[in-house]
Amino acid sequence: MPAKSFQIPGGFDLAAAARQEMLDQGFQPDFPPEALQQMAALEKRAAPTVADGVGDLRSLLWSSIDNDSSRDLDQVEVAERVAGGIRLLIGIADVDCDVAMGTPIDVHAAAQTTSIYTGIRTFPMLPEQLSTDLTSLNENQDRLALVTEMTVLADGTVTSGGVYRALVRNQAQLTYSSVGAWLEGTAAAPPKVAASAELAAQLKLQDEAAQTLYHERQRVGALNVDRVEAEAVIADGVVQSIEARQQNRAGKLIENFMVAANGVMARALTTAGVSSLRRVVKSPERWLRIVELAKRYNETLPAQPDSLALNQFLQKRKQADPVHYPDVALAVVKLMGPGEYELSRPNDDTQGHFALATHDYTHSTAPNRRFSDTVTQRLIKGVLARQPAPYTDDQLDAIAKNCNVKESAARKVERNMNKRVAAVALQHRVGEMFAAVVTGVTPKGTFVRITNPPADGILVHAQGVDVGDQLQVKLISTDPRRGYLDFAR
User: Do 434 and 410 belong to one domain?
Assistant: First the structure.
């Protein structure tokens, strides 16, 4: 299906620009013929069934919560109260069952490593017929899944009940926006929840488990950063505006569940004595700058990186000044630096994930859109089948390195396209003043983000500023073709 065109005055096509940006950053936006042939064959396969090593959990009240527009559903959840806590099951789409190692779709996914979201067009890692249908945990469809079982105790401790294969059936596909507002008490229950007292009770139980996990993560120092993301508002192929989208309680529910599931998966692989991919965030690259930033608010952070102290500082700022807190949080995120993948051997002393304050962490919960998660899925399935590991250490190391390179490139694609979309949306606002925070100081220039609406640009004549500085800036020009937003102090 051809990509939809998003024209702006002057004949500039945002969708075409997105495709070119993919090519410029080393991606292949189109699937090769061999992968499409494989996809055509997969569409004719029989529906999944219960088999040896695959349990039948279709009777459980599974549900999913995702973005309003999401069609590639990677996870479903269900919970029950047990002695001492809440038993939690998280089902993850079994992508490996349809995408065997070395097949054309797998080769393409291994090269791309991730789906890329440009606001105008999504470039999926897997063919859409696969990621949004055959392996997506769609409502009222039988699907194979890898189930991570755990018990969340009253003190927030997580005990693992294991990882196993099962056939599941999503009973209710729900969205962050509707469930979050209901859980927060600001809106009525969404129709599916209002129609089922059992589903409503199930979601309340899940929320209780998520809150328990959250408070324990806070206690040990996990950073609680409220992220604000830009979302393009498009009507009839025309960019109308960009709006801020903030995570709500439903989003945090899923985040806490995924963090817990990824921890259980990492420990299961370590216990099995197999090498794996770990997701690590090392100590912040510019901790001393974070310390300096805290001093502006009369707060003292330790000389050495300390996630608990940093989180306490952030929460104090959120309470003291919720209006400007997002600027402080954004500066801290930028100063911490990005996460990365690395090979973890059974006896390695891994770096851990600074922001999550956890030593054991992998990516396993989004195999439809992250190749690293498909690799982790294959590793654990090898353990369950008592078979040799499907990847050597050298192969895992190469995969980690490629995932890091492509993740950085994907951020560039998304950042550059976000700037183009913002330049279109803000063309009529040249000359206006905006509150901004400095997000980067590089040889190429000084970068700022305005917060309302959320958009990134370059600050001209920017001597004497550093990451975290809050400024008032004027928009002086826009250039959608190059994705330029120029601001002046």
Answer: no
Per-residue pLDDT averaged across 61-80, rounded? 94
Instruction: Name the β-bridge partners of 255.
Output: none
pLDDT at 257 over 70: yes
Most confident segment among 91-100, 221-230, 296-305: 91-100
In this structure, what is the dihedral angle of CA atoms 408, 409, 410, 414, given to the nearest 10 degrees?
100
The reply to whether 95 and 178 lie within a common domain is yes
Task: Give the helix/strand (H/E) hosting 293.
Answer: helix 287-295
Choosing from 395, 421, 447, the residue where a domain stops is: 421
**pLDDT for 417-476, tens place per residue?**
989 999 999 998 999 999 998 988 888 899 998 988 889 999 998 888 988 888 999 999
DSSP 319-338: HH-TTTHHHHHHHHHHHH--
Position 332 in a domain = no
Residue with tokens 């993740």: 407
Q: Which of 88, 54, 91 is nearest to 165 (CA)?
A: 54
Measured from the Cβ of residue 199, the count of other Cβ atoms closer than 10 Å reads 19
Residue 322: CB partners within 8 Å, gap ≥ 6?
none
- Cα radius of gyration rounded to whole Å, the chain: 23
Parent domain of 486: 427-489
Count the domains in the chain. Answer: 2
- Pairing of the two strands 54-56 and 158-175: parallel
Instruction: Judge whether 336 lies within some domain.
Output: no
How far apart, in whole angstroms, are the C-alpha atoms of residue 64 and residue 364?
A: 16
197 belongs to a structural domain: yes
Q: Is residue 302 part of a domain?
A: no
* pLDDT the model gives residue 11: 60
pLDDT digits (tens, 9 = 90+) for 326-375: 778 878 888 887 889 999 998 877 666 766 667 788 999 999 999 999 99
CATH of the domain at 436: 2.40.50.140
Q: How confident is the model at residue 1 (pLDDT cuts 50, 70, 90)?
A: very low
| Class of residue 239 by CB neighbours under 10 A (exposed 0-12, middle 13-18, buried 19+) | buried
Q: Report helix angle 14-24 to 393-425, nearest 10.
A: 150
User: Both 367 and 488 in a single domain?
Assistant: no
Distance, CA of 127 to CA of 133 (rounded, Å): 10
Closest CA to 191 of 174, 214, 167: 174
